Amino acid sequence: MKYLSRRKFLQHTAVGGAAIIAARTLRATEPEIGIEVLLDEPIGTISPDLYGHFTEHIGGVIYDGIWVGEDSKVSNVGGIRQALVEHMRRIKPSVVRWPGGCFADSYDWRDGIGPRAGRPRRTNFWVNEPFLQKAPDGPVKYDPNQFGTNEFMHFCKLIGAQPYLATNLRSNTAKDFYQWVEYCNAPAGVTTLSDQRAAAGDTEPFRVRFWGVGNESWGCGGNFTPEEYAMEFRRFTAWVPSYGVPLAFIGSGPNGGDVDWTKRFFAGLLERDRGLLRSLYGWALHYYCGTAGKGDAIGFTEGDWYELLAKALRMETLIQEHWAAMAERDPRHQVKLIVDEWGAWHHAGTQVDSSHLFGQTSTMRDALVAGLTLDTFNRHADKVAMANVAQLINNLHSLFLAVGDKFVATPNFYVFEMYAAHHRGKSVRTVFNIPEITHEQGKPESVPALAGSASLHNKRLILTVVNPHASESRRGKIDVRGATVRSARGQVLAADDIHAHNTFEHPHAVETRDVSVETTGSALEHDFPPASVTRLEIELG
Ligand code: AHR
């Protein structure tokens, strides 16, 4: 066994260095891990928008997930599932993206306004999915448009989040786009569209700031080349009336590591006028992790566990690579990165209803993906302006599952609840001094022995730490450089079984619990249980 030199591990501040891990050979007898929090090395402010959500008209996300209807026997607030509203308030969501996803580029916003009884039924983008072949002819195949713009805005208002609308670039026009802006943002009484909104009871404009210009324009959003998409982006965003709202346009960015898409889009955007950088608020990367062939969500092996966590950690490289590519045309980084779809994607089989396309049951493994990913965003708070986990309910990497009056929070929810403490904090560099561990056997998956992030809130430090090891705890000695430690307390999400998950029958199988933290003088020592996500709240002197 060989240890990294101090200089070498300081170069590995991202996740604290890469330990080559083979699950079968990592030993519990490893010495404790030094975690240094460097208060005088700020990275940036952690925007609550990094903890955003995504909702699409797909499977059970909208109908049966968010929207149950006013006449439903399921407790609701104006048609919106009450249990969902109550849980969302607990995690202080800042932004929700809607109506897609791929669905967005088939959606006509006009179908979803006006009296609900008169709204048209339209073929859902996802109707051809083989998974839905045997599903009844419900909303998953034919959208009844009962949940439209006003209903989405009410949902956002109820949970205290900002709306982020994705416009249809593939099958609607630029005029449809700016008229949607008008419907949402023009004051009542000034245009026919704003009067239509007011007639539905919303006299106050929605003041929507975030507008996605298409979705996955390299694929379901139109099969464009980057140059073609850049041209469409320029056309769609030219001279959109703002009604006093600082509109923030978000470009349809790359699929995972497709740096070529990023480079060629930026070149195309600036081809006519360098000033057009100003028309782009954020560049939206999509990245899903999954095991080979998108393996089972619950019935996975220990090897699958490490494979997925290693893939989740790839987010760090993706952020760095696209950030560097953007710098070639935007050296002052006026444009920030957005990750408006991320999460673990497993194959079908664990959905709670047979109509829930892409529905899956999230386990502790997915909770660790969430922790590792949110920590990555915190560590790059200077680069990433927003992120939206896909998707909120009854879908990939969901925080909730629901069918009829049954509702349960998944382990992912608890990670978001713990990490809400990071919101608006100052992200500070945190170094995990990890011994380099090499193994003769096992898959060449690389995960750190511990990973995390820290944020400062006046005299309170929030440190979140993931222990990716499937069966062994790790002891960490935490050194807060530049302050003394007065007291500390902790919360942990852990389970005896890496496959643990919540069900309608056992909704509390996986939950956070409070833990005590040892403080010795100015240092802290803590045992991070196997396969866990921990939050420490440290009061500084
Ligand atoms: O989240 C499911 C789908 O994944 C979205 O509709 C699409 O944008 C992505 O490919």
Tags for this entry?
541 residues, alpha/beta, ten-stranded mixed sheet, 11 helices, globular, disordered N terminus, binds alpha-L-arabinofuranose
Characterise the protein shown here.
The chain has helices at residues 6-10, 82-91, 149-159, 174-185, 192-199, 226-237, 259-269, 302-312, 314-327, 364-379, 411-419, and strands at residues 33-45, 52-54, 76-77, 80-81, 95-98, 122-123, 142-143, 162-167, 210-213, 248-255, 282-289, 336-344, 384-389, 400-403, 406-409, 426-433, 451-457, 460-467, 474-481, 485-493, 512-516, 518-520, 523-528, 532-540. By secondary structure, the protein is an alpha/beta fold. Strand 12 (336-344), helix 10 (364-379) and strand 13 (384-389) form a beta-alpha-beta unit. It is globular. The model is unreliable at 1-29 and 436-441 (pLDDT under 50). Residues 56, 100-102, 215-216, 341, 358, 390-391, 396 line the site of alpha-L-arabinofuranose (AHR). Alpha-L-arabinofuranose is lined by residues 56, 100-102, 215-216, 341, 358, 390-391, 396.
Q: What's the tally of helices?
A: 11
Q: Output the strand order for the largest sheet.
A: 21-20-24-18-17-16-1-19-23-22
Which residues form runs of ≥5 with pLDDT under 50?
Answer: 1-29, 436-441
Helix content: 10-25%
Beta strands, count: 24
Tell me the Rg in angstroms. 23 Å
- End-to-end distance, in Å? 38 Å
For the largest beta-sheet, the strand count, sense and barrel status come to:
10 strands, mixed
Class computed from helices, strands and strand pairing: alpha/beta
**What small ligands are held by the chains?**
alpha-L-arabinofuranose
Average of the residue pLDDT scores: 92
Global morphology: globular
Question: What portion of residues belong to β-strands?
Answer: 25-35%
